[in-house]
User: Fold this.
Amino acid sequence: MEPIKLINISHQIGNRTILSDMSISFEEKKVTAIIGKSGSGKSTLLKSINGLLKPTSGEVRVFDAPIDYSNLQALRKKIGYVIQGIGLFPHLTIEENILLAGKTHLPENEIKKERLHEMMKLVNLKGHLYKKYPYELSGGEQQRAGICRALFLNPPVLLMDEPFGSLDPVTRFDIHQEFIQLQRNVPRTVLLVTHDMREAKKLADYILVIDNGVIQQFGSVKEIFDHPATDPVRELLMVAES
Assistant:
């Protein structure tokens, strides 16, 4: 079964076309990096998949069913979402932030704090930090907490919108290694938006390149690097090699 399938989706804002007639499906339990310049439609694509945006036309299917926009809560149980700005609520502790998905989607008696500590251990987030507030954590620790929250319900699909872009190089390297290990231990379908082709090469199985809302190329990492199909793909590879 294809976890995510897009059928001729387009999205327009006024006279501007953000996504144009996209048809693509993503392989189960593999990481696909979605890459392109700023404004190419990467984030809009993720928002269309998790139901935050309804395409102007076309259909998004999740596990072979069209999105039911009247019952997005059911979709949220299947899809974790990690955003660029981490998105932790500053007035909540790390524990409260991570448990938020459970409190939103599960009965109280099904929310297990053991799961909280299990997730923190999995992403190397020190156990004593769960009572801290986001401002008391480093950027890397906050990002780990954001990943814990996205994975708390153990969703089979994880969407990540430039989650590592604001981290310093050393922290970014460490979290890359943790991401790779996490995917080995608990493989899931991951769509990772990034503007960095080197990051895509390191973390992904497949790469989708889009430009101005149009698919330029989709294939394995090796295929993209060995046989770039269009000028926008070649430009991104030139930047990665510089």
In short: The beta strands are 4-13, 16-26, 31-35, 57-62, 65-66, 79-82, 157-161, 189-194, 206-211, 214-220. Residues 169-185 form the longest helix (17 residues).
